[in-house]
Amino acid sequence: MTMESAPAPGAGPATAVQAHTVHPPRRSGGGAPVRTGGRRAVRCGRLAPLLCADALAPAVAFVLVVPAAWAWPPVALQAMAQLLLFARRGLYRARLSPSALSELPTLLGLALLQWYVAMEVLAAWAPQQAIGWTALAYGAGAQTALGCAARAAVYRARRRAAVRRPLSTLIVGQGPQARQVTAALYDHPAYGLRPVGLVAAPGAGGEERAAGSAAVPLPVLVSPQEAGRAVVQNSVRHVVFTAPPEAIPDGPALLSLFARHGCQMWLVTGPGAVASLPAGGRPDHLWGFTARPLRNGTAHPFGHGAKRAMDAVLAALGLLLASPVMAACALAVRLSDGPGVIFRQERVGRHGHTFVLLKFRTLRPADAQESATRWTVASDERMSRVGRVLRRSSLDELPQLWNVLRGDMSLVGPRPERPFFVAQFSRAHPGYQARHRMPVGITGLAQVHGLRGDTSIEERARFDNHYIETWSLWQDACVLARTASSLFRLGGS
What is the structure's pLDDT at 77? Predict the structure, then answer.
């Protein structure tokens, strides 16, 4: 690995370091590379104490206020409702500086809502056990106090554990802010992030090497390949961007790289810069710098799971219901154009992974190279009459339901493209590579706005990235409905 060294603020004199050195991880962050599944397990382990605290607070409060002889089923429901409401309000999102005191208004509001619903339910189903407004106030107050105290204890334990077992971290960016963020992480170990490398543009090493009151030489990584090797060698768990990824050379590629390795990513901005927060989010900071989590795609893990479940169910149902239509299409292609009913082609999916896309054949290219590098237009002379009908009606896309069932694609997402054109469009359009932050789809927001076939690549990328940044299951349902309503239309994908 070829890297330059940049001084990282800290204590003690600077020492020499070889150009290829990457900081060895401490006992906590070292060892064999951590698989993505392992990272998820670690995150679930970190959430377990918080989930227990949040489940116990309403249960204890409910038992104190409502007669306990019959209260155990409602206690369980109250605890489950609490966890669901907290998840909906974003109280389990990763944070750099969690504070139970700052969460107090949210805890109180949700407790009042829960107890009001409990009061109405008891009045309707068990009038003899009904509670009044005074009991509601006592219950909500007790639940809030218990929950806030339990959360404060969990956060205190987390900070102590973070000091003992810091996690390897990469800093992405250059200039004064990158150096200040690095210094803050070294000087305040309670964040639990130990910098092991600086990802900067080529040629930035000299500037970074000369700056600051250095103590520990911090390797400068000047390419995504070097950053990837550093992630594996150091078991990097966190990445801190000091500028938006789109403003950093190779930013989208780095974002995708770190997401593939399961890293938690943060965007840290200085004074005057506003870091937008997700719905229901609260301000976060890293020693005075505004901070927010960065996601390679805005869907939460639960959202991705729900999206995948919806895809699998609808794709299986679609294959079953569309099988007669698919059989008719296959027969028409076979009679019109001869053998080779299904067309297979390599496409680029999420995080740049390639897969084999299936379609009904609508034209026959001269060879595999031409198929991979020739742009298809509606007036292509190689397209038969049957092929034109299939292309105009989008029936040629039906075999992709199998791709969805396999997990190669989603029903809704950016349309996948061939590797040759992905490389070409990524160079020409800065936002194109960022489309691969989420699973590719049979249809998408760009397609329902008429951007299919031989249309503007820049506009497609703009719609695709907007879809990713505003993703929701409801938006997927809307796109599917609009696709179904305009199934027969001109164009192709």
Answer: 80
Please state whether beta strands 167-172 and 354-360 pair in parallel, antiparallel, or not at all (unpaired): unpaired
Residue in this structure with the two tokens 């956060």, named with its chain if needed: 155
Q: Does domain 4-18+165-294 have CATH number 1.10.730?
A: no
Would you call 291 exposed, middle or buried from its count of C-beta atoms within 10 A (0-12, 13-18, 19+)? buried
The token pair that represents 253 in the structure block: 């590629």
Domain ranges of the chain: 4-18+165-294, 38-162, 301-485
pLDDT at position 492: 46
117 contacts 82 by C-beta, under 8 angstroms = no
Measured distance CA(130)–CA(122) in Å, rounded: 5
Q: How confident is the model at residue 319 (pLDDT cuts 50, 70, 90)?
A: very high
Residue 206: how many CB atoms within 10 A of its CB? 11
Tell me the residue type at 394: S
Give the pLDDT confidence score for residue 62 in this predicted structure: 82
CB atoms within 10 A of CB 350: 24
DSSP conformational letter for 128: G
Rg (alpha carbons) of the chain, rounded to whole number: 27
With 90 as the cut, is the pLDDT of residue 159 above it? yes
Query: Which residue's entry shows tokens 């543009």?
Result: 201
